[in-house]
Amino acid sequence: MKSSIKAFLIIKHYKLIVIFCLLVSLSIYGYSQNGISNPAFNESRLRGVIIVESAVSTVAMTGLYYLWYKKFPHSRFHLFNDNSEWLNMDKAGHATTAYNICNIQYNAMQWCGLNNNRSTWISGLTAMGIQTIIEIFDGFSQKWGFSKGDMLANLAGTSLFMVQQFAWNEQRVQLKFSFHRTIFPQYNPSELGKNVWQRWLKDYNGQTYWLSINPYSFMNSKTSLPRWLNFAIGYGAEGMTGATINPREVDNKVIPEFKRYRQYYFSFDANMKNLFSTNSSPLFLLSIANIIKLPAPAIEFSQGKAMKFHPFYF
User: Which of 7, 28, 201, 284 would be a feasible disulfide site paired with 107, CB 3.0-4.6 Å?
Assistant: First the structure.
């Protein structure tokens, strides 16, 4: 009986993946075709983008399910409040992910010749669709659950992108990511990652999320600052070996005590699109590069600690 239920849940999740990819693809194609009068519109490019995105999304979602969610017991769909976990680093991650999905999709639609409004709405639909299907996976997992906090973070990242496009037709404030290795995964590798690839995703101690602000776009020609130069405000956290509290032991081994604390940074960054873009360059490729905050000097302000200068921080 249990094996039958498990098989049913696997089939149900796989159907969700396929249905999601089909709905997003049909919505993009249908909305982009409705009332198109732009001579720059390139239907063959759009079809190619939709085919590639559908294939990549299906493979990525299926791989995520089988490599991640299938390992844990399933349950009925349920909610889960994780707002107190990881000093909210996971929420910053959700917002940053949603924002950058929007950014990449928007520039792909622009490459196909769609106007700003259509590209913006399609990018928002894509970001919320992808993030929602992941939350649905969580909702059917016994270990996690559908998180309202995660969905609010997804909406915040999506809204940050869409509002700027509607208001300014450009991104003056970007959400970015950086990562450095830490000592903490060795004490709880199942939670923080067993190898460097897992730690990029799971070790919140090494992650930093950035608001990267372009002052030139607010000042236009009134400033001598380079158009590509950004000021970056970062948020991080450290000392976490568990989600809400640090365990005293893991696998019957006592681990050191660490103080959990938040970190705030000020640094410099570059807008890759302003630095390298040309009229003929596919901007969605540069938008992928723009996900990562460039390594640079940084000032750190942390709870209960003196101000610290990092000559090189990533």
Answer: 284
DSSP annotation of 169: S
Which helix or strand (DSSP H or E) is residue 62 part of? helix 43-67
CA atoms within 13 A of residue 311's CA, in its CB half-sphere: 0
Q: What is the pLDDT of residues 16-51, one digit of tens each?
A: 555 555 555 555 555 555 545 566 788 899 889 888
Write the pLDDT tens digit of every residue in 266-311.
999 998 887 776 554 556 667 778 899 999 999 999 988 899 999 9
pLDDT per position as a tens digit, 180-216: 999 999 999 999 998 888 899 899 999 999 999 999 9
For residues 23 and 103, the answer to whether their CB atoms sit within 8 Å is no
Q: E strand or H helix at 162, and its extent?
A: helix 148-168
Task: Write down the pTM of the prediction.
Answer: 0.88
Q: 3-class DSSP state for residue 233?
A: strand
Spatial distance between the Cα atoms of 50 and 46, rounded to a whole number of angstroms: 6
Burial annotation 239-271 (CB, 10 A radius, 16+ → b, else e): bbbbeeebeeebeeeebeebebeebebebebbb
The CA distance from 293 to 211, in Å, is: 10
